[in-house]
User: Fold Imidazolonepropionase from Neobacillus citreus.
Amino acid sequence: MTKAIFIRNASQLVTLHGGSDAPRVKAEMSELGIIENGSVWIEDGVIQAVGTDEELAAKYANRLAEAELVDASGKLVTPGLVDPHTHLVHAGSRENEFNMRLQGKTYMEIMNAGGGIHATTRATKAASHEQLYKESYNRLNQFLRHGVTTVEAKSGYGMDWETELKQLEVAKELQEKHVVDVVSTFMGAHAVPKEYKENPDEFVRVLVEDLIPKVAELGLAEFNDVFCEHGVFTPEQSRVILEAGKRHGLIAKIHADEIEPYEGAELAAEVGAISADHLLKASEKGMKAMAEKGVVGVLLPGTAYFLMAESANGRKMIDLGVPVALSTDCNPGSSPTVSLPFIMSLGCLKMGMTPAEVITAATINAAHAINRGREIGSLEIGKKGDVTIFNIENYMKLQYSYGVNHTDTVVKNGRVVVK
Ligand code: NIG
Ligand code: FE
Assistant:
């Protein structure tokens, strides 16, 4: 039994209560459930009570001495942030390509010339399990220092069994050993390996008949993702890959309409994906189909920023009823960052979202995008004791004072892990 922890007297305690059953849409995205002078009591890793400091101090009057006290006076307290889309497990970096892009080469040109995802694939193939684990472990530490307590992690820098397996095993080991929760996604369909360039359908067959069944059998992933993009996987190939995952119990996710409009949003709704991610070029029809099916739109404005592209239209998606979440897309090619708070600022400045909406997008809606809406993403009795304390007085300042890491204290599973 761990010691109880009592987080006291936050100037704003953002609870986000009431959103556990379904992701929040439209005006619900602005309902933060703020308690002023708010406190939380956590025990055995689980939230036991949430209320004003006065209420909780009275409730636990005869147990105050036994709890670890965390004074949050003058500070903002939120649920631990959730990042629902990362390529956490990879080796190396690609600042050389960054430089090439600044001189006019495009992301796709670099990839088609054997760089991009292929370059990171070579580095990831060459890295040992231990090297990959160490690099990814360090990145998780950085996520945690930015207030993130749960991270989704995709494979996809192998595209052969050996390397995909290595990435998924690293993710599994991180989940076991690192305090941040790591939720695993298989993304063998991240690019078409060059040996299949002339016959991409054969690679689709390998994914469907060999890799997906093996991943599912070993229980190494919960989700199956595909890069549905002109020049990568067609909507038809993507459908086949996602349906195969579903047959093996893997929930569908999709990188959709990132670089060109390709009816990825429509496909996400059709196959019942839990989320469609990127969506820079999604059509209105696709957005409406997502809204109807409750597909979470995971928006990645850091990727648009880094690729010097126009961001997805977050405002329009929210107005049409798409449940919107936000993520870093942390990866070495299109978004080498771990700062979800910076992404939240971009959500406001580049996608027309309000500060309240971006908080929802990086907590409860992000949790729903990875099927964790009942466990994390809000401060409610029975949820995991994952809490982030920011050294600012109110939630608007988190986006307003951008590019600054305001994280003060992080509590994970009811233990102080960053101070
Ligand atoms: O989400 N779009 C495809 N995959 C990643 C980028 C991966 C890379 O460039 O290494 C993304 O942007
Ligand atoms: Fe991605």
Q: What stands out?
A: The chain has a mean pLDDT of 98.
